[in-house]
Amino acid sequence: MGTSKPFLCVLGTTLVALLLMIGEVRVLLAGEITGKTYTLSEILAIAQEKNPSVAVLQANIKAAQGELTSSRAYPNPDLEVELGKGKALEQSGSAYEREESFGLGQSLEWPGKRLYRRKAAEAEVSGAREELEGFRLELIAQAKKAFFSVLLSERVLQVSAKNVETVQALVNSATLRVESGEAPELELIKARVEFLKVTKELRRAENRVAIAKAVLNSLLGGALGKDYEIMGEFSGSERRFEVSQLIERALTRHPMILREEKAVEAAGYVLSLERQSRVPDLTVRGLISEEIDKRAYAIGLSVPFPLLYQRQGEIATARATQT
């Protein structure tokens, strides 16, 4: 009976350990099933689709296109209707009769204002598109950097795991040698210290992988979820560039440079618009009036007279914006 109890205890402990190991294996298998593996091309596609800033810049393009539509619109006509009753004062005992008048006015904008407003809006649309393209290039660069950072962290983690296995074998070997009397206790102590060191490096490598994955997932707006894997290899570019060529291409073709050029162009058009706005717009009006004793037709022009103010403030602001 004294011998069977320790045996049952050992058997029970072994069964518990096996159950725990089976549970861990199931968890790992479940993670492998639910987690998805992404390649670099898939990561870049998701980044351009899910990054929140892309949606904001696309909305800016739509807003600029709305301004362009407004710049091409013509002002609406102005309709005036007056209804009332009146009576002739020269005739005694006359009754009130209906009187009415209809007026229609149309503002005629100065062509120069319309032209430069449209050009400024077109430049803003082009600038918004270049801004989106520039952000996409930056996003692709950041996504690639984050992707390869995860890949590198995982490679380091694999090396750290191999180091732990190697040092564990050394610890086991040192333990056997110390127990058999072939080596002093100091050798086992050194082996255990080295094992603690590589184990600590393994934990650091695991943390670096988690951080790198979180950074990559944040660039994609959290679209990857908490459990995902990446697949790829490190490869160098076979093309070679000169620094002067890269600088020249960047200055002539980079979207952010083109965006600033469009902003300067739009500011120039706004300045021209403000200068053209000193010319007043005409308003053509037509009138039909039906009174008790007469019917009248009239046509006229309305022109603001720019005597006291000629948009000096707006012109100064537009000039400052251009510079």
Quick description:
By secondary structure, the chain is α+β, with helices and mostly antiparallel strands. The protein has helices spanning 4-34, 40-50, 52-72, 111-180, 185-219, 243-253, 255-276, 312-322; strands at residues 36-38, 78-86, 97-108, 228-230, 282-290, 295-302.
Biggest beta sheet summary: 4 strands, antiparallel
Please report the number of helical segments.
8
* H and E order: HEHHEEHHEHHEEH
By helix and strand content, what is the structural category? alpha+beta
Helical fraction: 55-70%
| Proportion of residues in extended strands | 5-15%
Unreliable residue runs:
1-34
Q: State Rg.
A: 40 Å
